[in-house]
């Protein structure tokens, strides 16, 4: 992570300022507010604002006048009911805002989630930092033959070293050429007063997709859960999953009841198709069922057996 | 407005509870938090939560690490620039949540704004209050022949009295029949234990469109400005405009710089078509221009003259 | 259903006009295009336009240049894979537009689905038809004590007759007073030239929630599936379910492969929480498990047993 | 533009297939359907499907049963009225789907428009083409001192040559290293069977932002107009403007009345703030007004004078 002393100082100043508010306030999230949690080699996630708490979900579901006086137990039960039955609108009543620093190729996956508000640092008007994501050696992998979506045999030895060298050299060279074309250093001063510079909006195209960008990203809790269900999942690419997991920590501090319900009914849940369910019913009744004649494809059968803990 | 003693008490309890927060806080909005502003005869608007302030708009536009140290003057200039050039994403970084009580026919207009989060009091599971919107006599109007969208000659005397009687009697009778069909009083106790009741989800269909409903409604500042630009406008129906104006007051307390920019560049602004602009250019150059031969329809010409303060 | 001879004629004219197109075309859906399928006592659903077909889903998933030349079998497999793994964006590439006539209280449930385009017949500018939804006797029901969300014991005999009389009389009286206040007949002619009329935007508030409105409603296939998964479900209120089922028929004509995948993996599927799954694993392994000590609440246990076909 | 013979063949096959439809059909758009319009050096835009036409806008605004029988003149007047008064929902009733090939840095600007459906060619699972955007010499520019958002003095001579060389060499080298790390050629065959390859999802990060990607992009006409109003504008970066202009051509073939209204009331229109309007009123009345004392900042004053055709 690459916070400059000045940035760290700005964060400390923000953390030092408190005010009295009548709004729902969550001490556990206040404790981490503004602080940057490191992700990958130069990235971070930090919560910069939030609205609502577990009780606000309940309050909206009941359209009530006050904060409600029910027992925590009743609130928990209602939140779990809402999550289980996919009543999404009460969760939309909580909102959170993050400041994220992330590689551009991760930003391109992330931005596909459309129901969020985004302000990205603009490489059209500004100069990006000289920082690139270089994977840790243990995250290099050969593409698996079985599952082209995951990573298989880990690259190592000279092959891994060659890959890391290429990534580092290409990113660095391209960045340096970017500055040369701009004819500005990273403070905006001309490198060579006798030359023109290329417009920033054009020079940026020489950067590599592992260059870091940053943005403010704000979303409601329902859409955040949707994001996390896809990106904190084992099928997600490691790099975006690392961000999702850091965000999950902040969600657990913020809305512990909703986060637990999310873990039980979404993250850890499985969905069985009509055909799969019929097979499960037969198995529960003690019947032996084989893939052949089950009506499931081999792939679906394997997914079912995995879910039932019967994969070999 | 019809807050019960119990509701008023819940609001007072909520107002009495304060906590320390590191989040951006706006004292002028805190002062009105949770309090119900009366709208129409039984409705209200009240702010129940908010996120962000004027500085948060600036902070997001700059993707900065801290709260920023610029002069208020610079922040104001940037906010006005963003508003003038329709850079909408920084305004999306502020969020507000309202609790609103409103007639169903107003709710039906309102809900057409899709970029908001809503939790409505459910007449499928709950019993609505015995309250109906009856216009004040000065708001009754005959539909104008010139502009079928507004209201023209005001109904008065016996005609007005007849209209108000009909509205009151029909709404009341239908509500009482609703309770009779439910066979429940408004506390849910059976009115006549020897009878079944009709399901709430069906009985509600006997209610009139001036019955009151209520909801939690949450949106970001950009979308709120869009809502206000349409609903605080003179062309909007009076009843929804009354809500928009009450909300505008809370926006001015919350984000005074953004609200002023909105008034100047949106609410009070006019848009001229390419053809209108060409005519304005000729007029500014001292030329006399008449509708005939201007290329504008009579309707557009009248709109242009009105905008230029030259309507008769 | 209440199509006038003139409306029926307009539909026939539209059905009679054909043109040549290079676009994907679905004969089975063309056959029903523009025709109104009756729903409830005066409502209908009719498809007025569509874009795409099963192959367009595949084409978008592959970002291909032509229509693709794969075997139907491969396309089917890909569509089922996409549905199973909730890859939603390829389904968003198909779009359908409906014209729907429906009671206002149904419209209010429906409009909560925000990711659609809507143009509603405006009671602010137009006069609504003299038609109200009156449930068929077999759809009247007392609210169940067990499940307040469904309907329990059916109202019948004199109780049912009384309910139907009230609904019919109140709706009719209120409609007639609506016309009287407007001082217009349903063709817009003054009923009494010596009187003013009330503005349409106000008079409409005297109508009941079972009055019929109509709209054009357009959405993409992914969002339509989401709508159908909630509204064609047994927990949905009968009246909106009747519309969802009529729409499901058009979807099956339009995109048969996607519709079948939707039935298998969404409509007929069940989701088990992490805790439920652990119990299913134990049961499949031959273990006897009881609610007590299972970690599930009684309610969740009953849901699980129902799903496994072991409810009593 | 880089269509392979096979791709060209697929397009020709698609163009050759026609079917009869009852849907609204636009011959002028049919004529260009599927054909790729070249944009930049290797990109293109092509329309792959559409729904609706000018009459469909009118039909939705009127919620009518048939195609309507009004004179073209009346339809035109209604469409212009809807555009002028920002009644956006009828325009949402038309939908269009494009296949676009574009540089990644352009895609990153484009995707910020969230109200569209997108399927992008996945560099996680596929291998990108060996194509990069290299600006034509006349589009290189130094960043203007006056307006940092546009381009000022054009780079030329040896400076320009150096920039183009760097862009070309860096993109090419990085692409070749991408293939080397993958250890696959662009057909997916191993380059060196004795080595592992890096997973595609990781190797792609070595690519530069001027590499080309492609996607299917589908949106409704209202949102397309919003996109075009921002991206066909003189303030937009040249590269995305080139796409917007190619799309504008297809819109004019598709919905000529709506496109003309868009040109008059949006693209060619100006918005004056309340303060600007007051000054225009004074100027139209013959008064001399100077920036000093006008209440406008110098920047706003210049914008106003430019709009009035009085810039020096």
Automatic annotation (TrEMBL), chains A, B, C, D:
The pathway it acts in is:
Pyrimidine metabolism; dTTP biosynthesis
Alphabetized, the UniProt keywords read:
FAD, Flavoprotein, Methyltransferase, NADP, Nucleotide biosynthesis, Transferase
The record, for SUPFAM superfamilies, names: Thymidylate synthase-complementing protein Thy1
- Which residues are involved in binding dUMP? 109-112, 120-124, 204, 231
Protein EC:
2.1.1.148
One MF term from GO for this chain?
flavin adenine dinucleotide binding
The cofactor note from the UniProt entry for this protein is:
Binds 4 FAD per tetramer. Each FAD binding site is formed by three monomers.
Biological process (GO) annotations?
dTMP biosynthetic process; dTTP biosynthetic process; methylation
Q: What positions does the entry give for FAD binding?
A: 89, 112-114, 120, 220-222, 226
Q: Does the keyword NADP apply?
A: yes
Q: Which reaction does it catalyse?
A: dUMP + (6R)-5,10-methylene-5,6,7,8-tetrahydrofolate + NADPH + H(+) = dTMP + (6S)-5,6,7,8-tetrahydrofolate + NADP(+)
Needed cofactors: FAD
Active site feature? 231
Q: What does this protein do?
A: Catalyzes the reductive methylation of 2'-deoxyuridine-5'-monophosphate (dUMP) to 2'-deoxythymidine-5'-monophosphate (dTMP) while utilizing 5,10-methylenetetrahydrofolate (mTHF) as the methyl donor, and NADPH and FADH(2) as the reductant.
What is known about its subunit structure? Homotetramer.
Q: Which HAMAP family match?
A: ThyX
> Under which name does UniProt file this protein?
Flavin-dependent thymidylate synthase
């Amino acid at each position: 992570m690459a916070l400059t002393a000045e940035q760290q100082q700005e964060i400390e100043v923000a953390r030092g300022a408190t005010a009295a508010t009548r709004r729902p306030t969550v001490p556990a999230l206040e404790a981490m507010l503004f602080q940057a949690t490191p992700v990958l080699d130069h990235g971070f996630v930090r919560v910069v604002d939030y609205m609502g708490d577990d009780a606000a979900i309940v309050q909206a579901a009941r359209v009530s006048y006050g904060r409600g006086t029910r027992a925590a137990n009743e609130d928990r039960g209602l939140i779990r009911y809402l999550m289980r039955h996919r009543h999404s609108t009460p969760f939309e009543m909580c909102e959170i805002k993050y400041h994220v620093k992330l590689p551009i190729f991760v930003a391109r996956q992330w931005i596909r989630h459309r129901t969020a508000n985004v302000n990205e640092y603009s490489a059209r008007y500004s100069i990006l930092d000289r920082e690139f994501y270089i994977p840790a050696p243990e995250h290099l992998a050969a593409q698996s033959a079985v599952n082209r979506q995951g990573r298989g045999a880990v690259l190592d030895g000279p092959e891994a070293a060659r890959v890391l060298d290429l990534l580092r050299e290409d990113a660095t060279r391209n960045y340096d050429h970017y500055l040369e074309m701009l004819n500005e250093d990273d403070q905006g001063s001309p490198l060579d007063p006798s030359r023109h510079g290329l417009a920033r909006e054009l020079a940026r195209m020489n950067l590599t997709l592992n260059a870091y960008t940053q943005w403010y990203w704000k979303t409601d809790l329902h859409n955040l859960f949707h994001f996390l269900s896809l990106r904190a999942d084992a099928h997600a690419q490691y790099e975006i999953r690392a961000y999702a997991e850091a965000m999950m920590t902040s969600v657990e501090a913020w809305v512990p009841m909703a986060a637990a319900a999310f873990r039980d009914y979404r993250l850890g849940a499985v969905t069985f198709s009509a055909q799969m369910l019929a097979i499960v019913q037969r198995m529960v009744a003690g019947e032996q069922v084989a893939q052949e004649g089950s009506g499931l494809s081999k792939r679906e059968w394997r997914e079912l057996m995995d879910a039932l803990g019967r994969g070999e």
